[in-house]
Write a structure and sequence with these properties.
alpha+beta; globular; binds zinc ion
């Protein structure tokens, strides 16, 4: 289990785009998990509370990297946290 966690950790740091790497680190610090993908997406992030809205696909080479970074940060910031289970 620990091994898997370390693999994901390294996977975040291997992303080819520096700005996306930083956004992924930011998500990680907020307690988000990163899951590797088998398709052509780089992977997927999701919050630790498993809200249905709190997940996003991460691309290796998005057409608009800046927009992708903004969306990652916006998605992470939009997480309501653990207190809003009903909303
Ligand atoms: Zn959430």
């Amino acid at each position: 289990m620990l091994y898997v966690t370390i693999m994901f950790y390294e996977r975040i740091r291997m992303h080819p785009n520096k700005h996306i790497r930083e956004a992924l680190k930011y998500a990680e610090v907020q307690g988000w998990a990163f899951a590797k993908s088998h398709g052509h997406a780089y992977g997927r992030i999701r919050c630790c509370f498993r809200h249905s809205d709190c997940q996003m696909w991460i691309w290796s080479t998005p057409r608009n990297p800046e927009g992708h970074v903004r969306r990652i940060r916006k998605t992470v910031e939009a997480c309501p946290g653990e207190d809003t289970y009903d909303s």
